[in-house]
Amino acid sequence: MISKEEFKAKFENSFFVAKKKYKNVKTFSIFWFVFSTILVVGACVGLSFFLDPNNESIPLFILIGLFAWFAFCALPILARKDRFVKKFKRKNIGEILKYIWGEDSFYLEQGFVSRTLFDKSRFTNQKYTNYSGEDLFVLEIKNRDGSVFLSGSDLIVEKITKDKQGKINVDKIFDGVFCAIKFKKQFKCILDINSCKKSLLQSLQTESNEFNTLFHVETNDQIEGRLILTLPMMQHLINLAKKAKCKIGLSFRDEYLFLYLNKELFNLPTDLDDLTFEFLEPIYNDIFLINEIVQEIIKNKKLFKN
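User: That's the sequence. What structure does it adopt?
Assistant: Structure tokens below.
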């Protein structure tokens, strides 16, 4: 992977060009907003002189005029700004992934990880009714023994119920980044780290007090579980937890490593005037540390079934 310095140098120029375009769009939107407001209010007041001053419908007439202006003029102006931010995100997030991980990666704004993979992770055993997401990214990590495939996205998983009074209750089960990383071979054991559900697996304590403070580990095989949690692996997980500044969890099952971060991965400001490299630095940090975890697993041949 490229260094953070290379990443910063590559994209600061792209941000400058995008922000310049955005500033032009913003300036035009403000100008048109003010101009159209004056035009509509002036038209409503001007037309009111031709109406009967005793007519009580004049205020209503002015309100209807302002509403029509807002519906046909103001909303498209505001939507244009929103579309520009989305377009910037769609174009540049894909470029970020390709630059960091290579041309085999891609980004889909409206896609998300399949429900089948989320259920397979067993991060929760609660039933849910709403499953949605965005910002799907998919990539191939090549190595000597074959490729590892990673897919991830922001997910929202909710249980929506209605009580006897008809009130709708929303219980948010999962809200954050979910990644499914598929290896060529199956892991020798099941191991859950910071699972969101009650489990029948055995608790596992490591020799690292710092790791034990940050993570709760459960496995069906104490010996094989410790082979996964090598000292370098535990340090990568500690680094990820500290850098991401949120709760993280992992699940090793069959040929998959499932990983979640309780945060939005591609978080950008709503106003691109506020966009600086500091907004993209956490994206780089998360991607870099996830890659470190994957590479550590690839190097450890003892983890997989023959």
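The longest strand covers residues 146-162.
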